[in-house]
Amino acid sequence: MMYLAKCLLVASGLLATLVSSADLLFVAGYDLYAATQALAVGFTIDTVTTAVFETMSTAQFSTYRAIVIADNRGRLGASMFDFMDRSKASWSPAIKGDIVMIGQLVLCVLL
What we know:
The protein is an alpha/beta fold. The chain has a domain at 19-73 and 80-88 and 100-111. 40% of the residues lie in helices and 10% in strands. It contains six helices and three strands. The chain has a three-stranded parallel sheet. The longest helix has 17 residues, at 2-18. The chain is globular and about 30 Å long. The model is unreliable at 1-19 (pLDDT under 50).
């Protein structure tokens, strides 16, 4: 009986990590202004590091309404998306709608 209780406890903990109650997944370390705005209009959010993002499963990604990697104000260039490329086998199958990428072009003008 004790063994069954331990198995159920482990299973419930695993289920809790697979099912998120948040609407949106944000990646930390980027411009989180969008996260602030999402909270202001009533969305719930989870924030993960790029390292955690790369370890997430398709089932975990599937629990979110959207995955948001906010513009980093052009500081890192295209390399800011390398973690997404490395983990595309996990997050890509979870996408059931459109993919929208909105960036910011930073211009430096020398006078």
